[in-house]
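Case study 2.
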Amino acid sequence: MSAPPTVADLVHAGVRRTDATRVRACARYDRGALPPIEWRTAMAALYAREARWWEVLARATVADHTIPLVYIAAVGAAQAAARRHAEEWERGAAEYARLTTTARVA
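Prediction:
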């Protein structure tokens, strides 16, 4: 009988799946199967999902007082980076939508 997965195992699998989904979204965009606004919106959502996975690991690491602070700081940095990427993609999607709407009006 195998042991249940740890929080770190679950987070690793979740981040890996999210990354694979990002790669597939980019491939769809490159093939022209995904419109630019949908691609940007999907990328924002996927980075936000990654940030949530890092949040799960952050809560678990902070609760475990045997984990060195440097690891907790690394998790926080990964979470912050994913949040920044999500915000950048959200801004990009909004800007693209604004530009396409402006171009249609003009």
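The mean pLDDT is 94.
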